[in-house]
Amino acid sequence: MELVLEIDDEEAVTGAALRGIADDGDMPDEERVHAESAVTEDTAEALAQLVDPFALIGEVPGVELLQASWSGEEIDYDPDSPEWDLDEGESEYEDEDEGPYGDEDGADRVG
Q: What is the reported pTM?
């Protein structure tokens, strides 16, 4: 899964993250100072503070989140540009030599 977001108000995201940190009574002071610094310096960190991947998909049947990671960068995104074809270069099959029937020569085909 890949998710592309457009943040049109960085101050709102950062402010919400700072409020969330301030409201977290269980966070140790040293961790709080580090978290406040991180979200102030990087909007991606602020977003990561606000969004819990486990909460997002925790109730989705048949899905188990094993790991979540964040990365962020500022980009010029144009959804109509061919550069942004997210499926480009991905094969339908895990092994490019493998066909739809499990092997490259089709020996496992039925019918």
A: 0.61
